[in-house]
Amino acid sequence: MKSCEISGNKPGPDQIERLEKIKSKIPADDVLYENADSIKALGDPTRLKIIHLLRYGELCVCEIFTAMEKPQPTVSHHLNVLKKAGFLKWRKEGVLQFV
Question: What domains appear along the chain, each with residue ranges and CATH number?
Answer without folding.
Answer: 45-99 (1.10.10.10)
